[in-house]
Amino acid sequence: MTGTDWSWRDGKLWHKTASERSRSSNPTGWTARFVENVYADQNRSQAVRTVLSQLLAEVPADGVAINVGAGQTNYPNVVNLEICDGSHIDIVGFGSSLPFLNSSVDLVIAQEVLEHVADYTALVAEVARVLKPGGRFYCQVPFQIGFHPGPCDFWRFSRQGLEQVFSTPIWNLERLSITLGHGSGFYRIAVEFVGVTSSCLSQRLYRPAKALAALALYPLKWFDFLTPLSKERDRIPGGYLCVARKP
User: Fold this and answer.
1) CATH number of the 6-181+231-245 domain
2) Which residues of 186-218 are buried (b: 16+ CB within 10 A; e: fewer)?
3) What is the pLDDT of residues 39-89, one digit of tens each?
4) 3-state DSSP of 68-92
5) Which of 61, 15, 242 is nearest to 137 (CA)?
6) Nearest alpha-carbon partner for 16 in 25, 3, 29, 28
7) 96 near 126, Cβ under 8 Å?
8) pTM of the entire structure?
9) Residue 164 class from Cβ within 10 Å (0-12 exposed, 13-18 middle, 19+ buried)?
10) CB 203 within 8 A of CB 196
């Protein structure tokens, strides 16, 4: 990093182009809890919790782990980076410009981040730069989900898409698996269908109709238990996680 790009403010590291505002556009309070625990509960899936717990446990006591695009998540002994400030954010900046030396980081986490980055390849390359040889990149992305600007929403990733992203000699793809199955994939689209259809009558109906649909249609998610039984499991899953190691 260069001195002109970064500065310290109130115990946090800020990039010169980072926003001064907090993430006020994101849900807060009970709305945030509803979204996290009902509609967008991908971070609570068993697959995600199992893999992340293992990766975090393997970080050495003197190692460095970064959560890029941390949002509301706050893992122990992990440096949190976001594009806007927050109470638990340590670095206010961007994943495509990380204030770490080459080969100095043990683990980088990016949960539901790449779809919001216009040039996600630059972010992936920056992660590769800062990771130590043998360091891991935990990358979690959605597949079936409605448009969700935060503040932007650019991409969706299939299994083949992720294999392509991590197919270069820079990476060894250790794991690629579904986070949410076809039940959650269908659920997300069905909820948006109800919300969008209701908004045809009045735009003000979109959010309450979507919230009611999220509750009423929740049992669709239970079909995720059947997803591993199908050879067509990659048709409409809710999303994927992958673990890529820097050789």
Assistant:
1) 3.40.50.150
2) bbbeebbebbeebeeeeeebbeebbbebbeebe
3) 888 999 999 999 999 999 999 999 999 999 999 899 999 999 999 999 999
4) ECCCCCCCCCCEEEECCECCCCCEE
5) 242
6) 3
7) yes
8) 0.93
9) exposed
10) no
Which DSSP state fits 21? Answer: S
**Among all chains, which residue has been given the structure tokens 């949410």?**
180
pLDDT, tens digit, 9 for 90 and up, residues 188-206: 999 999 999 999 999 999 9
Say which residue the tokens 């949002």 belong to: 71
Residue written as tokens 């945030």? Answer: 32
Strands annotated E in the chain: 6-9, 12-15, 65-68, 79-82, 91-92, 105-111, 131-142, 172-180, 239-245
Q: How far apart are CA 123 and CA 68, in angstroms?
A: 10
State the DSSP code for 33: H
> Which residues make Cβ contacts (< 8 Å) with residue 191, sequence separation at least 6?
39, 146, 210, 213, 214, 217
* CA gap 35, 15 in Å, rounded: 29
Q: Are 205 and 198 in contact (CB under 8 A)?
A: yes
Exposed / middle / buried, residue 117 (Cβ in 10 Å: 0-12, 13-18, 19+): buried
- CA 146 – CA 148 distance, rounded (Å): 6
> Which two structure tokens, joined as six digits, stand for 108?
């980088």
Q: Which is it for strands 172-180 and 131-142: parallel, antiparallel or unpaired?
A: unpaired
